[in-house]
Amino acid sequence: MGKDSTRNLLNNNTTRLYCPWQPNENKTWAKKSHKFGLLSKDDDFEAYIDEDMTKTILRIEQEQLEKIERLREEDSVDDGLILRQAQKLDIHSSSKIHQFFKIPPSDHDLIETLSVPQKQLKPLITLEQIILSKEAFKKDNNQSLPATNSQVIQIYKKIGCSLARLQSTNSRLPKALKIIPSLSNWDEILFLTNPLSWTPQATFEVTRLFLTNVKATQTKQYFQLVLLHAIRSNIRSNPQEKLDPALFISLKKALACNPALFIKGLLFPLFESNSCTVSEACILANVIAQTKIPALQSATALLKLSEQLFTLPTCIFVQIFIEKRQALPYRVVDILSFKYFCQREEAIKQLPLMWYQSLYVFTRSYSIDMVPTQKRALLTLIQRVTKNDEISFAIENTIKSAIKSNEEELETDDSDDTIVYNDDTNSNNTADGMLID
Length: 437
Description:
Low-confidence stretches: 4-19, 27-47, 75-79, 81-100, 417-437
Number of helices: 18
Shape: globular
Strand order of the largest sheet: 1-2
Structural class: mainly alpha
Distance between the termini: 120 Å
Radius of gyration: 34 Å
Number of strands: 4
Order of helices and strands: EEEEHHHHHHHHHHHHHHHHHH
Largest sheet: 2 strands, antiparallel
Mean pLDDT: 76
């Protein structure tokens, strides 16, 4: 006697008995179940299904299976497809994708002139320095250092070795790696994997981990201590100063998911270090240009850039944020007008062409938001600086037309006020006359 195919599904409330449906059979049996079950029928009850209904059920089932399989395939090849397409691109400062950020020949001579003195360079903080400072703080305060299990150390060192060999973005990550963001000492555990030895594909996968269900402080520190060092190391290790496509997409994902943390955790430390190169600025500017950023975050970045030393990378970042033409607060427009453009001109003898380009885009995009004092200051500025004939003439005409339109608006407002006043006077006289009569 064969084994009964009836299965039991047990839970806290009911015990149901059911028979699995066989496509080849034209009838199904519904067995007696618990009183709360939907199939509370007699034992002798038979439910017949005709051929048309059977074909319909089979067709729906096949469509559902195909849809599920298609979704699984899309999920598994999505990132791989993006990377394969990105590998066809030359992501570096001299490629076609960076034509907007290509340094003009006249500005190449100013790279050394506008470079920051060695004394003013500030080294970036590394993950190792953070861990050593924590240990030193605990020793100074007589706090016991947590002893990490030797087995845990071995496990994460092995994971680091596997991340140093990872060449595919579709590989499954170890569970021990996935739990790192949820650990209180996540930075110490992550340091055991030696992030500097990771492949770009491994950095891409770990970046995805820190973009979901992670505290903001951890994500910001990851951008600053791991991702920033990874992209700079990758660019410098390449003779042509290219950036690996996996890292380029990592930057785009990071900026799209958390623009505020990306700007504060990755861009701000790079600005403050005064060590950003032209190639790094071109690549990051390309990432910013291809990603949607809230206007508030762009305004924050422009305020920070206006405080930095005047260099070609600074010009590139200012130009790309202005080129987005987002609605900026009055404070940002005011600081860019007087602090960035006017004061820079006084301190720099020879201005790069990118400075003129930034000023041109700024006057074209934000002349409506400027007050007359700002417009006249920029007009005086462009008339005083060393002329770059074509673009200087365009900037001067833009500012003059903005000033003229502003004066016409004021005259129109004055005339409108006068007309309204006369109408009120006439109406009052008429009313008085009617009362007299």
